[in-house]
Structures are given as C-alpha cells and as structure tokens.
Amino acid sequence: MSTSFRQTLSETRARDVMHSPVVACDPATDLRDVAAAMAQHRIHAVIVDGISHDPPGDRLVWAVVSDLDLVRASVNVAAGTVAADVSATPVVCVDDTDDLVVVAAALAENDCTHAVVTDGVRPVGVISTLDIVAALVADDRIATA
C-alpha cells in the first residue's frame, strides 16, 4: 500500500518526532554559553525560558535563539549581550498532540525552521523542519514511483 506525504504527516504527532528534553536558557545567559549548549547538544536552537509574562493569564512567553541569530550577533555583538538581546527568531508553538500537517503549516506560515512543542502549559520539546522530513523518509509506505 502506498501513502502520500500528507497522510504520513496527518498520522504522526509532534510528540512522536520532537526532541526532548528541551534545551533552554535564562534570558540573561551569556551568548558564549548559548553557543556552547548548541554545540554540546548538536542542535540549532535554544529556548529562552520565561522571557516575559503575558497578561491577563500571566503565562510565560518564550523566545528562541537560533544558530543564525548567534551568527548575526557575532558580527556586531557588544560586551554584555545576552540571550534575550538576540532572540530574533519568531516563536512558533504547537501542542504535543498536533499532527505534523499542523506543525508544518505553522512553520511554513511563519517562515521558521523550529517550533516549541508544549503540553498546553510548558515546553516539552522542539521540532524542526528536518524532523518532519525525517518522518517522511521513515515511512516506507510512501510511493516512490
């Protein structure tokens, strides 16, 4: 039986392919430490945890520092620059129960490569466009002809 890309994505949940645990840092984290975390974990994005509070529910708002954010900052970084200062990557949040069609659409709509996966309250993982591509490759039901 062959299947389509869309069928594979609709049958796969974010929690099935996300990277967990979350690699996060405090907004005041030095950029060298953010870069070290990326290198150590071989990842392209670190969540900046609790960047601000969003009334009225006073829920935490996260940010993301991507490898590209760090590269951009390296050109004109000032002494004392921290994670909160360079977290330019838009944050896309998806639920861990969302299927990959929803995740892919959110990433494409926001021109992002990483999404924060939440359990409805807090980050529980990160999913990238490469994770979605890997899910497609892993499904041997997809027709190649």
TrEMBL record:
<keyword id="KW-0129">CBS domain</keyword>
<protein>
    <recommendedName>
        <fullName>CBS domain-containing protein</fullName>
    </recommendedName>
</protein>
<dbReference type="InterPro" id="IPR051257">
    <property type="entry name" value="Diverse_CBS-Domain"/>
</dbReference>
<dbReference type="InterPro" id="IPR046342">
    <property type="entry name" value="CBS_dom_sf"/>
</dbReference>
<dbReference type="InterPro" id="IPR000644">
    <property type="entry name" value="CBS_dom"/>
</dbReference>
<feature type="domain" description="CBS">
    <location>
        <begin position="86"/>
        <end position="144"/>
    </location>
</feature>
<dbReference type="Pfam" id="PF00571">
    <property type="entry name" value="CBS"/>
</dbReference>
